[in-house]
């Protein structure tokens, strides 16, 4: 993989390595300091199979420390449109309808909205409408949106502000000259290893700290110790740690937990139907911004609808003017061969005019403004993400988009 470009294929390959490494469990630090009891799945999240995998993805609060994202007020109810909506598409020589896709792609929940109404809703794998599911890295898109909210509220000056302005411990580190925009685009320049095959990699250390639950501040300390790989802003390379730091920036700027800020600005006023929760770095610690929001699939779809409607919630403009357009333009280093695909402010731009939140194991929030369309899916792929998984998923999204044009 070139250091210059993020690709979902490379992202999936790195995560597949995690499954291999996690077969024996992570090396959990801090045992000498009275480690909290650890759920048997906590250090094997990416390696679980079948019913164990479904349980873990839908009961993350039983595995890790979490904080509630309260819903409240009037629920934004959905009308039902196009009863019996179905698609059939050809993929690798096979004719596949929606039911066959749900089975092949191990879909636990599917919600399709057009014009704010439900076009199709399905549940499988023993999962149901009231169940919550882990976002994995699809949660990065939620966090980046919170950066916009903090700018709109005046807590953050602009994306050109240095991150060290809000998190002073980052001064005289690899992030000393990094701006918020650099981290939104994952171009901080620090020496970061996202290879899950390596027990000593940076992401493996973060996962181990989260599983231990008793080391508040340890992840931030780890980030301050990283060296520099290349000049800030030069390359666009996938680094979960940078999104974690964005969470530190937002929490420091607003003076509240990420969960409470998300609740007050979006979850309550937009009418989410259920409390969500967010995985923490430790008991009582900060939320892990790199991924770990947990919500119903209907509420993930509502978040997509919030974006589709320009960032309005409860009659209030939550995001700055032009934020969504800015956030969904691929940063220059991520453009190849002149194609409009790449990575914006923690959003994937798969096709021109659309943007998508992706998480390993098949989590997805797809937003298509032209068609006034939102597709939310939670899945339990057998691996974090093979090219074949993404190809089938993309074919389904394209088929739905074509049918609802």
UniProtKB/TrEMBL annotation:
Domain of life assignment: Bacteria
Membrane-spanning ranges: none
Gene3D superfamilies in the record: DD-peptidase/beta-lactamase superfamily (3.40.710.10)
Keyword Hydrolase part of the UniProt annotation: yes
Assigned keywords, A-Z: Hydrolase
GO molecular function per UniProt: hydrolase activity
Domain Beta-lactamase-related positions: 108-378
Name of the protein: Serine hydrolase
């Amino acid at each position: 993989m070139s250091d210059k470009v993020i690709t979902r294929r490379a992202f999936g390959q790195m995560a597949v390595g995690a499954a291999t490494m996690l077969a024996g469990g992570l090396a959990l630090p801090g045992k000498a300091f009275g480690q909290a009891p650890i759920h048997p799945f906590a250090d094997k999240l990416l390696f679980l199979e079948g019913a164990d995998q479904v349980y873990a993805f839908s009961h993350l609060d039983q595995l890790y420390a979490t904080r509630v994202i309260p819903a409240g007020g009037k629920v934004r109810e959905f009308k039902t449109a196009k009863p019996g909506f179905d698609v059939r598409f050809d993929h690798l020589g096979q004719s596949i309808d929606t039911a066959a896709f749900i089975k092949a792609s191990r879909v636990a929940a599917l919600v399709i909205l057009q014009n704010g109404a439900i076009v199709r809703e399905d549940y499988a794998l023993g999962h149901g409408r009231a169940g919550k599911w882990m976002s994995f890295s699809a949660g990065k898109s939620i966090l980046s949106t919170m950066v916009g909210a903090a700018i709109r509220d005046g807590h953050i000056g602009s994306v050109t502000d240095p991150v060290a302005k809000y998190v002073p411990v980052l001064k005289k580190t690899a992030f000393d000259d990094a701006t918020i925009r650099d981290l939104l685009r994952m171009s901080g320049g620090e020496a970061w290893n996202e290879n899950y095959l390596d027990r000593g990699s940076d992401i493996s250390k973060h996962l181990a700290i989260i599983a231990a639950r008793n080391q508040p501040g340890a992840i931030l300390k780890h980030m301050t110790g990283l060296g520099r790989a290349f000049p800030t802003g030069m390359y666009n390379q996938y680094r979960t740690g940078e999104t974690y730091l964005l969470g530190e920036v937002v929490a420091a700027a607003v003076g509240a937990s990420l969960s409470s800020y998300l609740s007050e600005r979006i979850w309550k006023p937009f009418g989410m139907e259920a409390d969500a929760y967010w995985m923490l770095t430790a008991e009582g610690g900060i939320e892990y911004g790199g991924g770990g929001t947990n919500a119903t699939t209907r509420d993930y779809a509502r978040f997509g609808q919030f974006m589709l409607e320009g960032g309005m919630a409860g009659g209030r403009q939550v995001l700055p003017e032009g934020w969504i357009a800015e956030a969904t333009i691929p940063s220059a280093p991520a453009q190849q061969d002149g194609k409009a695909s790449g990575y914006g402010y923690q959003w994937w731009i798969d096709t021109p005019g659309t943007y998508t939140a992706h998480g390993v194991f098949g989590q997805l929030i797809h937003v298509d403004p032209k068609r006034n369309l939102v597709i939310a899916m939670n899945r339990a792929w057998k691996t974090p993400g093979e090219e074949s998984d993404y190809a089938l998923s993309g074919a389904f999204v394209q088929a739905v988009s074509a049918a609802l044009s």
